[in-house]
Write a structure and sequence with these properties.
10% helix
Length: 233
């Protein structure tokens, strides 16, 4: 079996939430393009090892016990390459750049690893290829956060909205706005849920958790100050 290959992928926050298909550019072991992985010079082919008969192992009988060890003549391959490929020198693989299409599922989290079967290094002697392990690194968003399958956002409201209640506009990750109704007497730091506006996967749809920040004005006109003083009284 071929070796597993690891790659790092940097993802935008929105792409990690929605999922995407992307191309990875790798420099790894790949099947030799000259000999097509056989290890032999074009026009020739490997010969069956005469010592092990193509088994790749030899038996050592010691009375009641029999031990099998890799054949020293062919190094366990079962074949001998008499005329090695000039490109890979008989290894059957070469280093080269290749492109791999990778489907990243919706909702991948920072540091999560995605395993792509059979996309790793090629196998030897007809063995299967290894896997490609993609480690995802998600860039934080300037406004939105994440808690599992829920997205989080903080929305500023003024004191009258919090005290009297009413509808406010809440941004979503896809750029649209949704209405959220606040109850009279909404407290600073209170959390409110917008159903289905979080991370949507094949099995589940998360919510958007809205935290209300009550904004205190830093500059007041004379009329505003009088109104607040009347409220305080």
């Amino acid at each position: 079996r071929g070796a597993d290959v690891e790659a790092r992928l940097n993802l935008d926050f929105a792409d990690a939430v929605r999922g995407l298909t992307t191309t990875l550019y790798l420099t790894t072991d790949a099947q030799c393009g000259t000999c097509q992985g056989s290890g032999s010079k074009p026009g020739t082919s490997p010969k069956v090892c005469s010592r092990c008969g193509g088994r790749g192992v030899i038996d050592d009988n010691q009375g009641y016990f029999s031990f099998s060890t890799p054949c020293p003549a062919c190094a366990g391959r079962g074949v001998v390459i008499e005329q090695p490929c000039p490109t890979c020198y008989g290894n059957g693989v070469e280093k080269r750049q290749r492109e791999v299409q990778a489907r990243i599922p919706a909702g991948v989290s920072d540091g999560q690893k995605i395993r792509l079967k059979g996309r790793g290094a090629p196998g030897r002697n007809g063995g299967p290829a290894g896997d490609l392990i993609v480690e995802c690194h998600v860039t934080p968003h300037a406004r939105f956060g994440r808690d599992g399958d829920n997205l989080t956002v903080r929305v500023p409201v003024d004191f009258p909205q919090a005290a009297l209640g009413g509808d406010i506009d809440v941004p979503t990750l896809d750029g649209t706005m949704v209405k959220l109704r606040l109850k009279p007497g909404t407290q600073p730091g209170s959390r409110h849920r917008v159903k289905g506006k979080g991370v949507v996967t094949a099995k589940h749809a998360g919510d958007l958790i809205v935290t209300v920040d009550v904004v205190v004005p830093t500059h007041l006109s004379a009329d505003q100050r009088s109104a607040i003083e009347a409220l305080a009284a």
